[in-house]
Design a protein that fits this description.
Blueprint: E1 2-8, E2 12-19, E3 24-32, E4 40-45, E5 51-53, H1 60-71, E6 85-92, E7 103-104, H2 107-116, H3 124-137, E8 143-147, H4 157-160, H5 166-172, H6 181-195, E9 203-209, E10 213-219, E11 222-226, H7 248-257, H8 261-270, H9 273-278, H10 284-292, H11 296-320, E12 325-329, H12 330-335, H13 337-344, H14 356-359, E13 366-367, E14 376-379, H15 384-396
Parallel strand pairs: 1-6, 6-8, 9-12, 12-14
Antiparallel strand pairs: 1-2, 2-3, 3-4, 4-5, 7-8, 9-10, 10-11, 13-14
Helix pairs in contact: 1-3, 10-11, 11-13
Length: 397
Amino acid sequence: MKVLVMNCGSSSLKYQLINMENEELLAKGIAERIGIEGSFVKHETTGKEKAVIEEPMTDHKAAIKIVLEALIHAEYGAIQSMSEITAVGHRVVHGGEKFSGSVVIDKEVKAVLEECSELAPLHNPPNLMGIYACEEILPNVPMVGVFDTAFHQTMPKASYMYALPYDLYEKYKIRRYGFHGTSHKYVAMKAAELLGQPLESLKIVTCHLGNGASVTAIKNGKSVDTSMGFTPLEGLAMGTRCGDLDPAIIEFWMKKENLTIAEVNNAMNKKSGVLGISGVSSDFRDVEEAANAGNERAQLALDFYYQRVKKYIGAYAAEMGGLDAVVFTAGLGENSIVARKEICKDLEFLGIKIDDEKNSIRGKETVVSTEDSTVKVILVPTNEELMIARETKALVG
């Protein structure tokens, strides 16, 4: 069984083809600048030379056609024909309250996804474009939707409600949804494997730390709280997102700078976070380099970030009544030795002791805490595409 995993953005499309008999990655790539001049596809089949295909891509349908042609290409393809693709698994950012798990996509599911586009206007529309395009090009191949929000649907009501007039929840479903659910689920399962214990018996805090970042409390295998909220703006400060904020600042800011709500919203999403504080970059590697060179604002941005992650770990340990493991994943979590060390610093009272030698590693599945650390610190490279493929196989395999 070969599953094609699709992750459609507004002007990009990431994909992987995975053989689910042995979970072998057959090919992967990305189509960039869809609908923009200078579009191209970077394609890589395992064991073959990489290929760059420079062709106009007016929309997602055109991009998917080029991707499929690359997959069956005589020189750098991975399969003989499109008939070898058993199913397509689509990453969908927002499933609202409708979906607590992955689903086979049908007419009713697409209608609900259209409704959820109001909750994720930057993400769901391109996700839907990918679904419609795949249906047209691969009309007899089953499609599965895997939602970033689904894993968090196990949160108790006290964790996902906002202290606003209750009718806003009843009428508009204004509540915390959480995101990165596929990643949090995957790394929690991997952490349980490394510990040799069933996930259902553990209390874990997973830290997905990348340009977008979130922390999740997982108790007995279920998400019970998470840092992102109604949108991915809430929670940790991120590369360009502000994270938690006193909402009264927005009106004050608008009046002082004579800004519209759209302008402030854009600034909170694209000009804030680590970029906003440091003035250097949204890329933590650049910020770390600047801090090491003596840039005080860059160091402040890092200190601010580490403190916020630490605060969520402590809060979630209290909320779950204990803690067995902290898991780091995504770009920063997997690769920054300094970030993991600084976040775990002063958490010894919780039983967290990081081993400097073990922690001097990047992108490898391993335990980086000391032998006597009662709370294990674990590094797990995330693999959302494999998780999507597994969910797809479970539904249509």
